[in-house]
Amino acid sequence: MILDPGIYTNIFPVEVPKEAIPMMQARRSRFPDLRSLRQELLEKNQRAWVYAEGDTVYGYGPDAQILEKFGFQDVSLGLMEVPRLATRIIIEGFVNALREQGYEIHFRKGHWQVYPSREYSSVARGAVLVLVYRGYDLRPLFWKDLATGEITFGIIVDVTWAFKDNANQALNLAQIKRRYGDYVVLAIGQAQGEYLPGTRRLNTEVARQRLQEHVLPFVQKHSEFTLPCSGDAHLMPVPVRVVLGGEEQ
Q1: pLDDT of res. 109
Q2: In whole angstroms, what is the distance from residue 134 CA to residue 144 CA?
């Protein structure tokens, strides 16, 4: 996809069902710590998830009815009513779809990193071999549309990187520099597009290139996914555009 001229963010709006969705809910006071409940659901292979927001714990998923035995009750809820819950459901649905397609998933506090399986480039120098994996860093968010006053949901999509040696052991750039020296670090930077090919010159177009060559195709390829609570979501292919303006004189 070729974007029209302008300034764009890496935020992609998400369309979700507007109608009320069946869920479960319970008082937060009954579950001061959700970890044990989540662990029990996981051990029993139940496709049910719980999320706390305010003084309420919400339950959802194909097997959510099992939560009745823990004191949850049925409720019908619109995603716009609890936007923080909605962002959690959106990112879980998106990540679940990627997992089914073979992506490797890593949760980091507040965001998810996903890597296509077996897709990497390599940096070699003599006996040194470093595998460079390109992935995507995902963060859900919501905001109020100033024009309509409605809540809008989105996913921030960034390019991220991981490194392994030829024994499949994870590395970071500090370890790579210490073990293999600046030459290999520079070569990795070139593989990432940070430097122009074969040079030490910074690539001033790297942000635009990553958006056009990596982020946009990734979003377009995975634009449709199913929410764990029920219903489908659509990740819009065009990111949020920055509109510059000022006060009229």
Answers
A1: 86
A2: 32
Distance between CA atoms of 249 and 247, rounded to whole angstroms? 6
- pLDDT at position 248, please? 47
* Both tokens assigned to 148: 């309509």
The two three-digit tokens of residue 79, written as one number:
């995603």
For the segment 166-195, what is each residue's pLDDT rounded down to a tens digit? 888 999 999 999 999 999 999 999 999 999
Cα-to-chain-centroid distance, residue 182: 31
3-class SS string, the chain? CCCCCCEECCEEEEECCCCCEEEEEEEHHHCCCCHHHHHHHHHCCCCCEEEEECCEEEEECCCHHHHHHHCCEEEEECHHHCHHHHHHHHHHHHHHHHHHCCCEEEEECCEEEEECCCCCEEEEECCEEEEEEEEEEEEEEEEECCCCCCEEEEEEEEEEEEEEECCCCEECHHHHHHHHCHHHHHHHHHHHCCECCCCCCECCCHHHHHHHHHHHHHHHHCCEEECCCCCEEEECCCCCEECCCCCCC
Structure tokens at 246: 């000022």
Residues 155-158: contacts with CB under 8 Å, at least 24 apart:
155/11, 155/12, 155/14, 155/90, 155/91, 155/94, 155/235, 156/10, 156/11, 156/12, 157/10, 157/12, 157/215, 157/218, 157/219, 158/10, 158/215
53-64 per-position pLDDT tens digit: 999 999 999 999
Which residue positions in the chain have pLDDT lower than 70? 1, 243-249
